Amino acid sequence: MRKELIAMALLALSVSANQSQAALIARGMDMVYDDVNNITWASDANLFKTQAASNPNLVSEIIAANGGVHKRGPTI
Q1: Among the listed ranges 14-18, 39-43, 69-73, which one has the minimum average pLDDT value?
Q2: CA torsion 46→58→31→28, rounded to 10°?
Q3: Do residues 24 and 32 touch, judged by C-beta distance below 8 A?
Q4: 51 vs 3, which has greater pLDDT?
Q5: CA distances from 5 to 1, 8, 13, 16 (A)
Q6: pLDDT for residue 76
Q7: At what angle do helices 58-65 and 47-54 cross, to 10 degrees?
Q8: Which of 2, 27, 38, 71 has a beta carbon 3.0–4.6 Å from 31's, enabling a disulfide?
Q9: What spatial distance separates the first Cα and last Cα of the chain, rounded to whole Å?
C-alpha cells in the first residue's frame, strides 16, 4: 500500500510539473531579449571588459561624460 501511495505521488508530481522555455531573441548590438522574463540583457558576460579592451580611454571617457563626478544610485 505504501509503495502504491509513493508511486501515485510521484506520478502526480511528474504530471503537474510545469516546464517553460524562453525564446531568446537577438536584438542587435550584442543584446538578447528573454520573452519569458521580459528582460533584455547583454549576450557578452564580460561586456565592460570587451569594450575597455577595444577602447583604452573608456574609463576616462565615462568619467569625463559625468563631469568628473561619481554619481551614486539610490540608497536602499
Answers
A1: 14-18
A2: -130
A3: yes
A4: 51
A5: 6, 5, 12, 16
A6: 65
A7: 100
A8: 27
A9: 54
